[in-house]
Design a protein that fits this description.
Shape: globular
Structural class: alpha/beta
CATH architecture of the largest domain: 3-Layer(aba) Sandwich
Strand content: 15-25%
Helix content: 25-40%
Number of strands: 11
Oligomer: single chain
Number of domains: 2
Bound molecules: flavin mononucleotide, iron/sulfur cluster
Strand order of the largest sheet: 2-1-4-6-7
Largest sheet: 5 strands, parallel
């Protein structure tokens, strides 16, 4: 089994690890000219962003050539995923890849503008993450199939979300609005955890952002000095999955 994953604060990396098999980082795969994956089962583990998948995961699906009898997709999310399953069905159908199974694991919501990370961490036991993962593992082991129906109503909702959510949230220039405070020691870790190679750190100019931001918040969540902030964030607490280290995120995204 091969699992391709995208992660910023570790939830997807943790779920990918629990699934097992060969783990491949989507940001690293995207640096290859050609991506070809062949296995008895191939899965993608991705966060929900603005009730769909991150832009890089969408581009990955468009680029990758997958040969398998069992292709599956697992989201991790915090609050809700609405039409996110339909997005996967449409994106995979577009390239003739049959989606055999899809699921979503509810974890900490790392969306900083709205969610108090401390509250998310404190209430995590209520989500029974391990129970959700056990059920997922059983489904995958049994090669369970799930059908996603995309109706006219689904398509209308997707259009509505596109206008209301995705455009304001996922703007390329978002990172330029991040605040670097005086705690910054120019260690360069934010650049190392960035899946989009969007950050440059020098002693002279400090932290500089380019215009390739995926709005994943890996830089904000993983800064060891908590020196990176949004102009508007629920509070200053940041999050990384308890089973995942900073080194893991660097290795995944560098
Ligand atoms: C830009 C952005 C948008 C998000 N949008 C949603 C959303 O629409 N619904 C949801 O439930 N969670 C949303 N989240 C939360 C993540 O999907 C969730 O925390 C995920 O588990 C993070 O995975 P990671 O730790 O592997 O990065 C969003 C997070 C970010 C950064
Ligand atoms: S990770 Fe934090 S402390 Fe290090 S360079 Fe980036 S903002 Fe500064
Ligand atoms: S700049 Fe920060 S938020 Fe944007 S892609 Fe890089 S790590 Fe993610």
């Amino acid at each position: 089994m091969t699992i391709c994953y995208f992660t910023a604060s570790g939830n997807c990396l943790y779920v990918a690890r629990r699934l097992g098999g060969t783990l491949l980082s989507i940001p690293q795969l995207m640096r290859q000219d050609k991506i070809e994956i062949q296995d008895d089962a191939v899965g993608i583990v991705s966060p929900v962003y603005a009730v769909e998948m991150p832009a890089m995961v969408r581009k990955f699906i468009a680029k990758v050539h997958i040969q398998t009898d069992y292709f599956f997709f697992v989201y991790t999310y915090g609050m809700g995923y609405a039409e996110a399953f339909a997005h996967v069905k449409l994106a995979t159908e577009d390239k003739g890849l049959k989606l055999s199974y899809i699921n979503a694991i509810q974890m900490v919501d790392n969306y900083l503008p709205i969610f108090d990370q401390q509250e998310q961490i404190d209430t995590l036991p209520q989500k029974n993450v391990e129970g959700q993962i056990e059920r997922l593992l059983a489904d995958i082991a049994a090669r369970k199939t799930v059908e996603v129906n995309v109706t006219a109503e689904t398509l209308a909702t997707i259009e509505m979300y596109k206008k209301q959510l995705a455009v304001p949230i996922l703007r390329k220039e978002t990172a330029k609005e991040y605040i670097v405070n005086d705690n910054c020691i120019s260690c360069g870790i934010c650049a190392k955890v960035c899946p989009a190679n969007n950050i440059n750190v020098t002693k002279e100019n400090g932290v500089q952002f380019a215009d390739r931001c995926e709005v994943c918040y890996a830089c904000l969540h993983n800064c060891p000095q908590n020196a990176l902030h949004l102009k508007k964030e629920a509070n200053t607490v940041k999050f990384r999955n308890e089973h995942v280290t900073l080194k893991d995120i660097i290795e995944a995204n560098q």
